[in-house]
């Protein structure tokens, strides 16, 4: 009887194993969210193309890194973050959607060793950070 119980238990485990082994589902943006981001990134890219630090700053969540206000962002953070190479990459880079641990909607654009993050906020999408592409 004990052998039969063990065989039944093992059979049940083998049936359940594939369900546990499946990779988690990849997050997919709703069409409305995708449309909202598309509008935002078009404006952001236009500002980058014009090298307009004020417009980019207006689409950035402050404080940003060590910039507490717009003047500091425009003088220090913008030139350091948005080099001509990064501006060119952001113009052509494909945005990838995902949700973070706090359930925020984010889009990421990978540029070499950096990841540019755009987050949905109560006021709409904003450029929120640059991270390391590891």
Description of the structure:
It is a single chain. With about 130 residues, the protein is of the alpha+beta class. It is built from five helices and four strands, in the order αααααββββ. It has helices at about 1-20, 30-50, 55-60, 70-80, 85-90; strands at about 95-100, 105-110, 115-120, 125-130. Strands 1-2-3-4 form a four-stranded antiparallel sheet. A hairpin with a 2-residue loop joins strand 2 and strand 3 (about 115-120). It is globular and about 40 Å long. The N and C termini lie far apart (about 55 Å).
Write down the overall geometry.
globular
Note the gap between the termini: 54 Å
Tell me roughly what share of residues is in helical segments.
40-55%
Helix-strand category: alpha+beta
Q: Name the strands of the widest sheet in spatial order.
A: 1-2-3-4
Integer-rounded radius of gyration = 22 Å
Strand fraction band?
Answer: 15-25%
How do the helices and strands line up, and which of them pair or pack?
Blueprint: H1 2-21, H2 31-49, H3 53-58, H4 70-81, H5 84-92, E1 96-99, E2 105-111, E3 114-121, E4 124-132
Antiparallel strand pairs: 1-2, 2-3, 3-4
Task: Looking at this protein, list some descriptive labels.
alpha+beta, 5 helices, four-stranded antiparallel beta sheet, disordered N terminus, 4 strands, globular, 134 residues
């Amino acid at each position: 009887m004990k052998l039969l119980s063990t065989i039944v238990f093992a059979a049940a485990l083998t049936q359940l194993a594939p369900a546990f082994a499946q990779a988690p589902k990849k997050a997919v943006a709703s069409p409305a969210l995708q449309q909202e981001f598309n509008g935002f990134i078009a404006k952001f890219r236009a500002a980058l193309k014009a090298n307009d630090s004020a417009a980019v700053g207006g689409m950035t969540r402050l404080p940003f890194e060590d910039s507490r206000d717009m003047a500091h962002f425009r003088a220090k953070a913008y030139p350091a973050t948005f080099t001509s190479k990064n501006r060119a990459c952001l113009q052509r880079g494909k945005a990838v959607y995902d949700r973070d641990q706090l359930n925020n909607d984010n889009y990421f654009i990978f540029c070499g060793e950096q990841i540019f993050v755009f987050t949905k906020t109560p006021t709409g999408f904003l450029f929120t950070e640059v991270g390391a592409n590891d």
